[in-house]
Design goal:
Layout (H helix, E strand, L loop, with lengths): L1 E13 L12 E13 L11 H12 L20 H15 L7 E10 L2 E6 L2
Antiparallel strand pairs: 1-2, 2-3, 3-4
Helix pairs in contact: 1-2
This protein binds zinc ion.
Amino acid sequence: MFEISVEESFAAGHSLRNYHGKCEKIHGHNYKVRVTLEGETLNEAGLLVDFTELKRLLHSVVERLDHEYLNDVPPFDQLNPSAENMAKYLHDEIAKGVPAGTGARVASVRVWETDTSVATYRAG
Ligand SMILES: [Zn+2]
């Protein structure tokens, strides 16, 4: 099994509903996202998926959130914008764009809210 990962950072604001603590007030994070694809087969160039292509895909999803107040951006106008929910959202959106025919799939998405706090969503 091969795995490849790319990362991107973005800044966004949020506040958590149904939560009592620091994160219930409006504040921002410099988020970091790492997406990992996995697959069994490589193309004739020896690649699972071109890093450039995966970075473009990650960027196209992340730019919807960059410099936004997440609580206003669907689905986070309904769904709490926790790092866990963001990891699943990013997983599902990136999965739609993984090039067909590569045999690659999204193995996991990690979302760092801070350098020391990270949530991971892994498809079951
Ligand atoms: Zn927060």
